[in-house]
# Entry
Amino acid sequence: MTETYRDRIDAISLSDADKASLLARLDASLDAYEAPPAYAAERVGAPHADLSVAPAAKKGRKRLTSAGIMTIVAASLLGSTAYAVTQGIISVPEAVSHVFSAGPAPIEIANRIGRPIGASDTSNGVTLSADAVMGDRDNLAVVYSIVREDGQPFNWPASVSADCDVATASKTADDFDSPTCPMWQSDGDDGPQWDSDSTPDGIERSSYFFDADPADPAIQYVSMWHFSGLKEPLAGTTYRFAPKNLVSTAWKDGGADNDEIMLAEGSWDLSFEIGYEDLGRDIDVSGTVVDNELGEPANLTSVSLSPLAIDYSFEIAGKDAFDRAESDSVNQSDDYLTREERDAMPHGFLLEDGESFVSSPHTDVSLRLNDGTNLGIVFSGLVASYDKERDVTVFSANAFLPRIVDLDTVEKVVINGAQIALR
Amino acid sequence: MRHDAERLVRDYADLVARVSYGYLGRLEDAQDICHDVLLKALVRDEPFASAEHEKAWMIRTAINTSKNYLTRAERRLAESHEDMADLAPAYLEEHDAPELTFPEGFDLSEAIAMLPPAQREAVLLRYWAGYTVAQIAADAGISPGAVSMRLTRAHATLRAVLEGACHD
# Structure
């Protein structure tokens, strides 16, 4: 005998007594509510009670919020309008610092980062500009600014700022809880423009918004990419970004209605040629053996490092390692685990294409710098795959560095104890 | 006004309680959530365009209100790897039609409690409210791939719990 999920849920109901109690509570709350409700036109003119009941208090808070916004707008209008336009266009080192939230980049690196020329578009008084593009052979980051030309800040409700993923000086992308707001209502075309024959095998993307100064008329948007199996070099490829409408799906004014909040309505269309210098280096790893995440030696097959990111891969003969990772992963979907619990697990979850995405608590990768300090690198995981032709299990991983790094300051890459000199 | 309240209680109290149970896996907060949701409907400024609109609003608001009843610790469970969703688009079709079935006596609330909130929401909308993957995606403001990933992971967890229950 089985029952469906729908049957089980549909079996839930409130008793008549519960409903009577609920109705009494609603009556009491309505009596205390000040505004004429949509459901009760006949109630217009009814006496309004105090604001001590929760919904009425929320209405009161709403008015206060509006008043607060008006104050901010008035204050910003005291400045010049020209301020708004120039303020949002950030310097390249500043843009880079937004990517890493770790201060200005070394000048010699910043000078080699591309600044797209003319990659700017204005719609309904809001200008979207690509301020910087940087990367290496397989990784790319683009920093945009979004600027209101009227000089006013993006005054989204306080609930959005509090609950959503807008980085500030004190809240980095790592602290985000909610990945869905704010967001572009449509990304449109976004990314390098390849024809079907030139599309790389794998594309991973992450992005976040950054509000360097909530009082100014600009916010920043960072889009980061990792490509595997590139058919063409990134440099020289046309990059296009054509988003529509910057919105939030967060709750309105702390309430329950999550209708979209329009932060900037418009359509933008930017194109530019990826023109940065590839600052990455392939490091000679021939003959290097590392302890892999499964506790057995593996042959390191590649390490590439740039000021932006690191990629590495290793191989283990046979299919055992793959099977083991797979079997350990099946019932360990990490969604219901805390980060601490997830980090404590030996393996992660199984991808549906037959690859095992293995969490990496035992991956200990760092950069040993010339000054003797270590820069730890956090990997979200390793991708495992089995190469039938060569009968090897291949693990690969990539990660953005925690901050931009001048490779001349790096002495070694350390992977699970194995030290690989850059020179 | 009382007439409106009576109608909403009659038409939607059970629905909101079901959403609350489906989302939270418990009934303790159902009355409070019903109160909050129906009150919001009663004082809503804009009329609903249709009965369907009203029902959809009730479901969405009940989910959001239930979300507000989650503890901070529970909210942290909502962390998910949405960025991985694009790697598994094939699951769109697998979850196109089936119903979730359970052995008699199986403790559904226990299984639901193991799902992170985002997955509970997807399961609730898919298998109780009957939304399509595309509708859930539009409703939640996420990609269909992300919805499919949530359903996939929910399936994996529920399957594991069911298998454990059957072996006990």
Summary: The first strand of chain A starts at residue 2 and ends at 4. Chain A touches chain B through 64 residues (CB under 8 Å). Chain A has a mean pLDDT of 66. The radius of gyration of chain A is 27 Å.
